[in-house]
Amino acid sequence: MVEHVAAHTRFVALGDSFTEGVGDPDPSLPNGVRGWADRVAEQLALTDPRTEYANLAIRGRKLVQVIDEQVEPAVAMAPTLVSLYAGGNDILRPRVDIDALIAGYDDAVARLRATGADVLLFTGFDSVASRVFSRTRGRTAIYNELVREVADRHGATVVDYWRFDEYDDPRMWDVDRLHMSTRGHITMAGRVLATLRHEHTLEQDPLPALVPVRRLDAVRANARWTRQHVGPWIVRRVRRTSSGRHLAPRRPVPTPVAVTTIAHGPDRAPSTGIGV
User: Fold this and answer.
1) Tell me: the pLDDT tens digits for 57-107?
2) Torsion angle of alpha carbons 9, 14, 18, 24, nearest 10°?
3) Which residue from 53, 75, 202, 223 lies 20 to 30 Å from 260 (Cα-Cα)?
4) Cα–Cα distance for residue pair 150/196, rounded to 1 Å
5) Which of 27, 69, 29 minimizes the C-alpha distance to 53?
């Protein structure tokens, strides 16, 4: 278990869209997103302005791509704290060999831990409340148990996304129903900081009670979601292209977190989204 964050932290975030920040738009930042990892870095920097942060995550990356493209650059950065979450894009594919995935994942975690860095790993989200993604629930449960074994073997720390019941609320999700909304990213940042036992100043207005959606409105929303998000996703799978194929890492080298970035004041997340 991570007992504390080093006085001078060099935080390197690895992974796919979850860590890149998709679903939390900010046109002023590279790739147009912010995300939970930025917010964690900002909170660490409030404690120590010398904190450095790199984010190598790119949307659409499968686990082997994350390992091949991001792990060695991260090792070269001599991090003190590394986050790694990948495999969700593999689980969504028609076929996946989870044991083979975890074999490579295990080796990657071993290399990251060999740097002396604290390593944060994530379980996958429990999609039981989703009519669409609940079909992958069994795969995710197997993946999660193997991730926990890897963490135990190498002394890494697990951020147990599977057990975060607040994500059953559809407002925690972006309109694509696949990525966290701004509220979801802020909440995840708080969860990560709690795992690190690091105090934070993140704030959000309480969510009002959910208003029942009329059946006709739900049907229309589902049709719109299918047209705008599911269709393009299927086309990319058929063409074997990635949503991140033309993107570069948002923060390719560790740099201090700018004071102007953390001076935006308390986070206030909008209540958006219609369901997953």
Assistant:
1) 999 999 999 999 999 999 999 999 999 999 999 998 889 999 999 999 999
2) 50
3) 75
4) 19
5) 29
Closest CA to 251 of 49, 8, 7, 51: 51
Tens of pLDDT, residue by residue over 38-56, are 999 999 999 999 999 999 9
Helix (H, G, I), strand (E, B) or coil at 204: coil
Contact at 8 Å (CB) between 9 and 48? yes
Cα 80 to its chain centre, rounded Å, is: 19
Residue 273 has phi, psi (to 5 degrees) of 100, 150
- Relative to beta strand 52-55, strand 10-15 is parallel
Task: List Cα–Cα distances, 141 to 64, 145, 147, 148, in angstroms.
Answer: 20, 6, 10, 11
Residue 265's nearest CA partner among 39, 10, 34 is: 39
Record the pTM.
0.84
Domain ranges of the chain: 10-206+248-262
Q: Which residue has the tokens 């939390």?
A: 24
Q: Residue for token digits 């060695």? A: 72
| Amino acid (one-letter) located at 193 | L
Asked if 199 and 172 count as a contact pair (C-beta separation under 8 A), the reply is: no
CATH superfamily of 10-206+248-262: SGNH hydrolase (3.40.50.1110)
